[in-house]
Structure formats: C-alpha cells, structure tokens
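User: Okay, second chain of the day. Same drill as before: sequence in, structure tokens out.
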Amino acid sequence: MKAVIISIGEELLTGQTVNTNAAWIAMQLNHAGIEVMETRVVTDNKDDILRTLRSVEHMAPLVLITGGLGPTRDDVTREVLCRYFDASLVPDQQVLDDITGFFALRGRKITEINRDQALVPDKAEVIRNPYGTAPGFWFKREGMSVIAMPGVPYEMKEMVNKHIVPALMQKPRDQYLVHKTILTHGIGESYLAEIIAGWEDNLPENISLAYLPSTGIVKLRITAKGRHEQSLHKAIEEQVEKLLQLIPEYIWGYDNDTLEGVAGQMLKDQGKTVSTAESCTGGTIAQKITSIPGSSAWFAGTIVAYHNRVKQEILNVAPQLIGTHGAVSRKVAEAMAENVKKLLNTDYGIGVTGIAGPDGGSKEKPVGTSWIAIATGNGVSSRKFRFGDNRERNISRTANAALAMLIEQLKQETVNPPGR
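Assistant: Same drill. Structure tokens below.
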C-alpha cells in the first residue's frame, strides 16, 4: 500500500513549529509495510486544503492528515473534509461525553466551542481521543481512505498506535517493506560510498540502499520489497553480513541504537564503569550518557574542566603540561582522561579538550581542533580531530567521536582482554 501525508498549519510553513508529525507517521507506516509517496504542508486555508486533497487523490489509496481539528476559527480541516466527501455534521453523544469528561477531570467547565467538537461528519468513522477534545475521522470512498488526526503530537500518536496502524495491518497486503539501518562512524559519506560501491552495485533488484548522513554519523538504510516477509528479512541479513566483512571497523550499531546506548550496554555486560573529563564539550558527553535509563550502574560522573584552573586544581593536570603543549593537546587530553579515571575510581576515563569556536583558533590549532583520550587499565590512547568552524556541530561531533572511541576500545578488550 502507498500513502501520502498532509500536515496542516501555517506555523509549520513559517518555521515557528517543526513538522515532526510527518516524520514520525512516515516511520510508523514504513514499519507497517506502507510506502509513503509524498508529504505536503498546507496552510490553514480551506481552498488550499481542498486543492491539495484533490491533487493527491489518485497518487495513493491512503491519505493521512494532521492538524486543523481544534476548536478555534483557523481549524478548518473538518469543514473541508465534509465538503470533499459531501458529508454533514451530526452530534455524537460518545464524543460529547469524552469532551465533557476531559474538562471535568481538570476541574473546568466545557465551553460552547468545545461542545461543537462533538459534531462529527456523518460519512466518517470516529476515532476517539482520550488525551484531547478533537476526535479523529476515517473516511472511505471508492478504494480511498482519508484519515484526519489532531496536530498535537501525543494525541496523534495515540490514534496511530492504538487504532490506525493495527487496522491497516489487518488488511491483505500484496507487498512488504523491510528495513535495516546500519550505523557507521569515523568515515565520511563519499569515502564510505567508494568502499562499498561494488557491494551496492550487486544488490538484488528488490533491495535498495539510502545514505542518511548526520553529525559525524552515516546511516546506511537497506530496504527490501517483496511478497514474502520472512525471505526479505533473510535477504537483508545476508547483505548486512557482507557489509560487516567490508567495513567492520566503522559499524557500531543498528536501527535505533545510539552511541551512548551501545557503549552503556557494553560497559554493563562487561561489568565496567566510565567517567568523563570534558572541556570543549561542556558536559555534553555526560548528558548523552545519563539520558540512558540505568546509566548510574556504569557511569560515575563528570568533571567539566572548562577553565585551565579547573584542569589544574581539580583534575590535577600539571601546569607545565598546559604551559608547554597548550590546553588543547594530546598531553592534556591524556592527563584529563587518566586523572578523572583515578579521581572517580572507574575502569575507563574519557578526556576531551578542543576549540569549539567561533573564536580561539590559531594557524596551528584552528577552530574545530579536538583531542580525545581514553584511559584504561592498560594505558591511554588518544586521537586528534579537526571538525570545522561551526561551534554547535563541533561540540556534537566531539561528543560522538568520544563515545565511538570508547566503543572501539571496549570491542578491542572483548577480543583481547587485559592481561593476555
């Protein structure tokens, strides 16, 4: 099955609100084997919405709409859908009870405009909304389904997860979509494409590859299409095995994995702990790590040594190291990693120092220069990076690189445990 997603709201076109709904819906549809052909964003204008509906009606048998179902005057989606499907609004007691209960639970009196939200199109199936006042609607006509949902993300997600996707999954399917995303770090998109070009050229006709680059990470999404779901999974796993032979040093995870999540699971599995000493990243690595539930089992803490005085007085970095080599240097990063490991009594220590920018760079050490060190029970290793001139991106890429180096170290010690 193929689908089109329409997002309604002027705030989406002006940039005041980021359209996360369309991306999330597309992901759920893809997991359900439904191919999204197009997404569109339309302002809160009746004629524009109607024109958009008419323009996509022959593109796909499924159209999903978010936004414009609220109680205010600029919420016109319900009215447009009645016009499009030649429907009339009729009162729905169950919806009215839902709305009344919603207000009663919050100790508020229902307003007249909210009461009007219980008027529903007589040619649509009503999708109840336990988290808001706007119900959703499912219209069906001549092999076409149009599903309208509120624009509030948690209200929309409830409808998609509990009602819409389960109903769509029950329909007979003539094609399945199976995805697998391979996560890489430490290599640019063009270099990666060159290495795996031969593999990509020999992919079966029903399997395609997409490159999805982000900050320091390149995702390789493999998609297989066909009539037999199990054979598609098997075909994808065969291709993943081939990639593991080609680029094992760059692959660190799959699908929805995160660097911090993978590192944390490896530490947990090995019964190890880590601490961080951060300068240019300002605690970003620690924030990523502590976003993982249960991270206290393997993360002791961090010292944000932004000023040299903190590096010297708290982390015990020798002043002569900073004086001789500079704060952004191999020696200082390694001292930070080793000393935070000792201070917080962990198995691993991460030390990061760099020039995030936009100021502070020099010819020898331009903006974007970072040194990252990993201290272990067997010594310390370090690496120099040059990420560019964007401060936000430099911080993010440095944090990701530090976690990737930790994963690399953990992999090495799994194969060659200390003391061998």
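The first helix runs from residue 10 to 14.

User: Thanks, on to the next one.
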